[in-house]
Amino acid sequence: MSEEKFRCHPSIIVEKTGGVIIALFFIFFRNLDDLEEMAKEGFSRGNLLILGIILGVLTLILIYNIMVWKKTFITIEENTIVIQRNTINSKENTFGIKNISNVNLEQNIFERIIGTYKIKIDTDSLSTANSTDIEIVLSKKHAYNFKNRVLYLMNNEKLKNVQSDENNINRNSLGDEVYFDDENIEYDIVYSVNDVLKHCFYNLSLFGFIFNLAMIGFAVFVSVKFDGAKSFFALGIVLITSCFSVFQLFFGDLIRYYNFSIKREEDKLYISYGLLKIKKFAVPINRINALNVKQSYISRVFKRYQSDIVTIGVGDDDSEGSQILLSSNKEDFIKNMKILLPELNLEEYLNLERESKNHHIIKIIDIILGTIFSSVILYCIYKFDTGLSPLIFVGIDFVIFLISVLFYYMIYITRGFYMGDDNMAMSWGIFAKKISIIKYEKVQYMDVKEGPVSSKLGLCSGELHILASFGNNIRTLGYYNISLFEKLKEKILFN
């Protein structure tokens, strides 16, 4: 089979240069009064020199991006994708088809206007789990043909085994007039604007909302008490930032998950969403390393559930934990989960076993030691002649004790564990709650910990490490009997 060699769509030049132009625009806009004054009084040699340097830099950036576009070629060979750049320094990256995990499509506003797609290709690598390895911009027709071509080769690593009906499935050339897209696909689950707005409310960060309201109140209070243009400007920035944060807390997910749609077909999940930036990608079922069922504090009050999946090499840094279901009541959530992952009996994993009752002894000791430590610190502060009444320090210490008890209780009622035949489930959190369902075969290794007190009680705690992006690869188990960890060890080793 002949190789296919092509360049990105020329609109990538505008995208690469546009960021610099926008940054300069804001700089000029901020100094609009100075520019107006300069225009009235005339440009001095110094001013002309500055403008000349700016235009020269812009020209050089534009020329450089044109050269990079012109000298960069993408080649699909028999079992590899080669990206070759022949500019000042020659550079060639080769990606084996067998190491590619997925091909995703994405569109920002500019690309939607131009009619192009950004192709993102992810590889099976933990080191690149939070970044996409290849990004290519193509016209819509060529983008879908490229995606189909690569996906086909992923299922046929050796071209000698390709069937004679290959051309009926995907065309060999990116220039072919026939291409396939998913614009008219009938998704199994589609969320309306009203559904996404409900998700925004149930997924609201209570702490973030209270913090930003406090910042707005502080800005208003200070602006009333103090005068001065500089302080007013600074407070204006704080107020605008806080208001924007509150807006993002309420409506950020609406912009991100607008028209959220998902479909299960054969061994893949097809997902599409986005308002300002449209994302379309497919997740192979066998690349799901964990399923997370999540509840924010508000969701726990209203008994709402949402879920995402943990993958490696599927999606990008924003979607490594790809959302598959938005907030809904338990009945709808389980019904939709049966559509997407019918091989998983979700109800089985929602009833988890709490930690051993003996672990209360460990927690009581931790609270007592923590209270003693805080008491010593507060006593040392009191000895510095702060002028405060000792009752205030006693009150602070009592509040710390109450918060410790509250946190311990919330952790206790949130944490749980279940061991099934093929999967395990565990939950954790304080006010929010997350249940993670993991196949035994997806666990890389397990750490079991035993302290002096827990060993006397016959208890252990542990950590499970799964294949996921950094910061999302550890699952912490509470205190359970040693026999449970022995059973878990056997499940991990022999599955």
From TrEMBL:
Pfam families: bPH_2 (PF03703)
Record's keyword annotation contains Transmembrane: yes
Keyword Endoplasmic reticulum: no
Organism of this sequence: Terrisporobacter mayombei
Transmembrane segments: 12-29, 49-69, 201-226, 232-255, 364-384, 390-411
Keywords attached to this entry: Membrane, Transmembrane, Transmembrane helix
Protein name: YdbS-like PH domain-containing protein
Signal peptide span: none
UniProt domain YdbS-like PH: residue ranges: 69-134, 257-313, 414-464
